[in-house]
Amino acid sequence: MDRLAVMEQFLAVAEAGSFSAAARRLNIGQPSISKAVAQLEAYLGVRLLQRSTRSLTLTEAGRRYRDGAERAIAAAAAAEIAAKEDGGRLAGPVRVVVPTSLAQLHLIPRLREFSDRFPEIILDLEITDRETDVVASGVDVALRIGALADTALVASRMARTRMALVATKADGDLHAPHNLMGQPAIISRFHHEKNRWIFREGSARIAVLVRPALVLDSDDAARSAALAGLGYAMLPRPFVADLIDAGDLVEYLPQHMLEDIDLWALLPAGRDQTARVRAFLDWLRPQMNAIFANEQPGVIP
To answer: Backbone dihedral region of 186: left (phi > 0), alpha (psi from -120 to 50 degrees) or beta?
Structure first.
């Protein structure tokens, strides 16, 4: 009896709640999976499933065996991945949290190159603009943009770029930061907690109080709102460069942009990096540097 294979079949039955559903999931015949579970019960000398005409439920012994089988399957998979990596083959999952605009505009369009180079690495992407508890959720890498709060995570700066103030051409023209006062502003909580934007005028820093027209928790949504003509938005330039180049948005006051903004890779402290995580980060850094470094402020047409 192939014990790991039978464990996997039993777990499929336990999760699906029926032999037929488990058989479809595993793409094997129902009689085969029924026979395998019956042989497993005979081998263990205990009933694992309580059968009725309508459903299957786990017995107490079945629940204990399920928990142990899940651990055994996970350990076997980890051992296989470790052996492949020791042999020079990088394989297995890398869990990455990515901001929405970064994923859609820049990361996903480039993943074919990564996949071709590392075909056995599975990227498990969580695409969100909300902060994720990296340690509790088992994430390998979290990509974040902007200032970091105090954190116990290990932070590695991947790239640096500038912010861009954008709006549709129909919104008018700006010659100085103070012209923004009273103008509708699209606030992205991802970068701005308050309705105050900081600019440079000569050698001085100036704060401009803007009038929020819309407050959003996503750079992707703020980009769409600016494109819809709902006001001025201040976003990382790589997230709006395509719209600027196409003439759909105009970049205002580039000479007054004060601060650079950083892309960070955050990793759990104390957790050993696997070779596949290192491979992903080594591939990602030059990709992001090329994108972010190229997006410097241009000249207003």
So the answer is: beta
228-281: pLDDT as tens digits? 999 999 999 999 999 999 999 999 988 887 667 888 898 887 666 688 898 999
Q: How far is 200 from 198, CA to CA, in rounded Å?
A: 7
| Structural domains of the chain in order of their starting residue, each with its CATH number | 3-86 (1.10.10.10), 92-301 (3.40.190.290)
Distance CA 148, CA 268 (A): 15
- CA neighbours closer than 13 Å in the CB half-sphere of residue 297: 20
- For the chain, give the number of residues: 301
Phi, psi of 34 (to 5 degrees): -65, -40
Q: Model-level pTM?
A: 0.65
pLDDT band at 299 (very low <50, low <70, confident <90, very high): very low
State CA 278 to chain mean position distance: 17
CA angle, residues 85, 89, 92, in degrees to nearest 5: 70
The candidate with the shortest Cα–Cα distance to 183, out of 282, 102, 136, 253, is 253
Q: What is the pLDDT of residues 139-197, one digit of tens each?
A: 899 998 887 775 678 888 888 888 899 999 765 667 888 888 888 899 888 776 667 88
For residue 242, the surrounding DSSP H or E stretch is helix 241-246
N-to-C CA span, the chain:
74
Angle of helix 60-86 versus helix 3-16 axis, rounded to 10: 130
